[in-house]
Amino acid sequence: MPYIDAFNHFFPKPFFDRLCETPAGQKDMGKRVRGIPALYDLDIRNQIVDSFGKHDYSQVLCLGMPAIDRLFEPKDAPEMTRIGNDGLAEICAKDPPRYPGWAASLAMNVPEAAVAEVERATKMGANAIQLHTNVDGAPLDEDRFWPIFEAIEKSGKPILMHPIRTREMADYRNEDKSKYEICSVIGWPFETGAALARLVFSGIIDKHPGLKIITHHLGGIIPYFQGRVGHSWDQLGARTSDEDYGAILKRLKKRPYDYFKDFYGDTALAGARGPTLCGLDFFGADHVLFASDCPFDPEKGTMYIRLTIEVIESLGLSPADKEKICFRNAEKLFGLKAR
Amino acid sequence: MPYIDAFNHFFPKPFFDRLCETPAGQKDMGKRVRGIPALYDLDIRNQIVDSFGKHDYSQVLCLGMPAIDRLFEPKDAPEMTRIGNDGLAEICAKDPPRYPGWAASLAMNVPEAAVAEVERATKMGANAIQLHTNVDGAPLDEDRFWPIFEAIEKSGKPILMHPIRTREMADYRNEDKSKYEICSVIGWPFETGAALARLVFSGIIDKHPGLKIITHHLGGIIPYFQGRVGHSWDQLGARTSDEDYGAILKRLKKRPYDYFKDFYGDTALAGARGPTLCGLDFFGADHVLFASDCPFDPEKGTMYIRLTIEVIESLGLSPADKEKICFRNAEKLFGLKAR
Prior knowledge:
2 copies of one chain form a homodimer.
Chain A: E1 3-9, H1 13-21, H2 23-28, H3 31-34, H4 42-51, E2 57-62, H5 68-71, H6 77-94, E3 101-104, H7 111-123, E4 128-132, E5 134-135, E6 138-139, H8 146-155, E7 159-162, H9 182-202, H10 204-207, E8 213-215, H11 226-234, H12 246-251, H13 256-262, E9 264-266, H14 273-283, E10 288-289, H15 303-314, H16 319-334
Parallel strand pairs in A: 1-2, 2-3, 3-4, 4-7, 7-8, 8-9, 9-10
Antiparallel strand pairs in A: 5-6
Helix pairs in contact in A: 1-6, 6-7, 7-8, 11-13
């Protein structure tokens, strides 16, 4: 059974070198990144991919965290984006068996450059567009971002949606906002849900029904709270004193819950079986893609691939459903062929 | 099969009358509360309970949202707490078949009063203590709250942990923080996870291992993200540049993941079956209690009871596990008898 890993991270050398030169990059490139060689060393990454050869395993690559628009000012972000995307395209062009596809990043803090990059990357063969759940703290439904969603819909490419902490998102207090890493461990999945809600209730999805959004971590908080997503948002406005949200429900083309069911999710849940069943039950086999989040695991690259394959193999899926999750949905959405 | 509903909300008349007189109460007592008569009208509430008579259904009562310490200044909060707790005690004393137990609220913004109320309420027969996940924005692990956890452990009563939005918890930006009700629908379950993490990593659980914490909404975000809770927090500090969290891992008496497994969860997931299976798989049948979150559903009191009973009946549980979830865990933790 071929496994296409839909969502994992790599910094191509030209991008990583430039990143390490900048103050922004240096601040964040400490132990977090340097301690994970598979994030920037292609030989090490190749070894990891090859170690899963018996599974015909391959990876769709995208850049690592943080988002370019968090690291770089508008004057630098578009250029860094092109360097990153060119680097990913080159790796994939040279080695399609290991790396059959890549997702382009965008300089969301320069929306007109982001629109242009969607078009340039698509022409270069990008298989997806990676977006983060907010743009340096700003929600994705701000007016300035709408043309980007229009361009992505036009490109026909799916969005790989990655969470990132908002600047204001405190676990409790602003001076203490990353206490115990609460925000990255469990705040990110909330962020994913919040971003999806913004796309739904703002009307972006209604305006661009062709968008296909693949959420990292199997939908974030949404599938486990599908009951609240359904029944609480059916009552949008009923518990709010100072805003009239009833008009939003009337404007939407379908029930809020149904928009969330129409998103896609990847299996990057750090090898947890029960949650994978829960998310699969929510999205259905046509809307779930295998992914590992390589190389962000305690073994620095191999552990989540291995555990996630074990989970998939343990689910007792029908052959047809298993093929969809392991590679057919990826082939279809990304427009590529498994090895 | 008797069903004890472990977590649902009611305002006794003396408390509700006082609440409605105050500016704080009036602000929040608009359509949100007035539109749900079963939240404050005992006759209507009795009818709802009786409508599930064939299930030998009964309710453990606690006050509704928001928390007293969000609604009242320190000068008023302790008195309002006593009025609320006296009201719940009276309802239960008069009608044990319908209301076999109650959870005491605390004025957390007056910690010494909270300690005294734990003792007073326990003497009055309180079956649990209801805490919210933050105190008007302050995390539960601030020094001033530690004596309260000591008093609760001493009382032997379990904590019913309810989420509440932090003042600073923006879904994106502070000026826009309740946009689309994102915070109450999916931010609350994140809050639950954040509060649990604070209790674990601060050392409160190690200091008071007798605490039994029953989380609303089946653990909030924790069970679906058990993979991250495990493997990401095993690496606490590895991705943080400016703080040394390694010392916390060394200080803890067990693996972070194991603390989270030791909490309890209730089944208040708005009638969603897949997530209930996921949460039950995480906590185990000894640590899950039936609860509905009555009366906060689109039917204003009946819907989540009915749907949640349907979910439990559909799970194919062993008779022993079903009894634990439906009433035996509640009997044991709360110290009461099912009808």
